[in-house]
Amino acid sequence: MTITTTEFATLTGTYAIDAAHSRIGFVARHAMVTKVRGSFNDFEGTAVLDGSDLSKSTVTVTAQVASIDTRNEQRDGHLRTNDFLDAEQFPDLSFTSTSITHVGGNEFEVAGDLSIKGVTKSVTFPLEFQGAATDPFGNDRIGFEGATQILRSEYGVSFNAPLETGGVLVSDKITIELEISAVKSA
Q1: Could you give the percent of the chain with pLDDT greater than 70?
Q2: How many angstroms separate the CA atoms of 166 and 152, rounded?
Q3: Which of 117, 141, 100, 109 is nearest to 18 (CA)?
Q4: What is the pTM of this model?
Q5: Torsion over CA of 97, 140, 11 and 111, rounded to 10 degrees?
Q6: Overall domain count for the chain
Q7: Where are the beta strands (DSSP E) in 105-139?
Q8: Which DSSP helix (H) or strand (E) runs through 57?
Q9: Domain range holding 123?
């Protein structure tokens, strides 16, 4: 189902990310042979949508670095150190949109400033609108999914170890994955 401009206009409002039904994740290549997936378990965000004029729409998201979860406590602990994200000095990651564009159909691009470890860079998230529904509790929900790639070294996250066979332990290229369910405020 492709959303029409008229249908999108009905979605105007302020939405809070439902963290219990959303995921902010990442993927990194490990030892050049496999991928390690992780996520942030503690995050919040707000989207203010103007379905008639997307230039008036905004998105803000903050994730707590200490909540990083790769299903391996030792690795998670290392990721919280200064070698990677330095949770003590930089307790959160944040994204603030600078523009939202309807590319066509259910495709949108959300450009903005991503801040990691005290460094802010512009990134664009291509997102696909997954739909809108009223849940059994009467909440109006919308869903979006998408991913983008960054180079972690550009954010001062440069720890690595060379491999005997060539290459490095952890890829510089990181994929950030978003699966978002947001609830409209009353």
Answers
A1: 97
A2: 20
A3: 141
A4: 0.93
A5: 20
A6: 1
A7: 107-116, 119-134
A8: none
A9: 5-184
